[in-house]
Amino acid sequence: MPAPGAGGGRGAGEMTAGRRGGTSGGTSGGGISGGRRLPRQRLRSAKPRSQSSRAWLERQLNDPYVAAARREGYRSRAAYKLTEIDARFHILRPGRRVVDLGAAPGGWAQVAAEAVRSAEGPGSQVGQVVAIDLLPVEPIPGVELIQLDFMDPAAPDRLRHMLRGHRADVVLSDMAAQGTGHTRTDHLRIVGLAEAAAEFACEVLEAGGAFVCKVFQGGSERALLDVLKRAFATVKHVKPPASRVESAEMYVVATGFRGVEGKAPR
To answer: I need a labelling partner for 170 at 20 to 30 A (CA). Which of 20, 236, 252, 255 fits?
Structure first.
């Protein structure tokens, strides 16, 4: 559920009942693994519901990503957005240090922990995942969690000091602000979160690092893109297949961090 400021990255429509335990399964292939098209289901309930509520519930029942998340133990269908992005850009590798901004309910953190092997024993290929959200997140093996609004002035330093070497290899942001019902206002709030995430990424990333961030189509993110194009070798817009067609969300994927003007990366 989105929350004011920098709350949960995945909303109620993204959440599932699944809970993934360990980190032995692979997700680098992207997409839904082992899924097949099932007959369309209709909601059967004696409880009176509004038309919009019934439509939402039926969409959940017939969403193959929701079904796959339940089957494979992910906490949200949004996990597949990250697996699909990673299948294309290969940003999550064993041993990497990852920060997940707006982590609730934990789907992206689960995917990251599997890919970087942060739940495994000591070794050179064991990564680290640090995740933050305003909402509580149930423990995830291999993930260090903070319950704090990322827009809190203390949040960036808290995250930085939790990271090995105080640096990261990947910064992920699926943050979303509480909707107001006014499209333009909501878009500007999302852009504000994206800009804050990008500023943090430019402060903590190692040379060659990557940044993935949710944005919405609306044309107000030009300043953000200008900053990223100066700081990264490659910047692309991506709409992974798991992102619903009717949603205006897209993701900016920036790779090959080379530092900001006047300050080279470590």
So the answer is: 20
Residues 100 and 158 in one domain: yes
Q: Which of 42-46, 198-202, 252-256 has the lowest mean pLDDT?
A: 42-46
Q: Which of 47, 81, 214, 229 is catalytic?
A: 214
Q: How much is the pTM?
A: 0.79
SS3 assignment, position 250: strand
214 flagged as catalytic: yes
Do residues 91 and 173 both lie within one domain? yes
For residue 48, the model assigns a pLDDT of 60
Number of domains composing the chain: 2
Q: Which of 54, 73, 92 is the C-terminal boundary of a domain?
A: 73
Q: Which domain holds residue 61?
A: 44-73
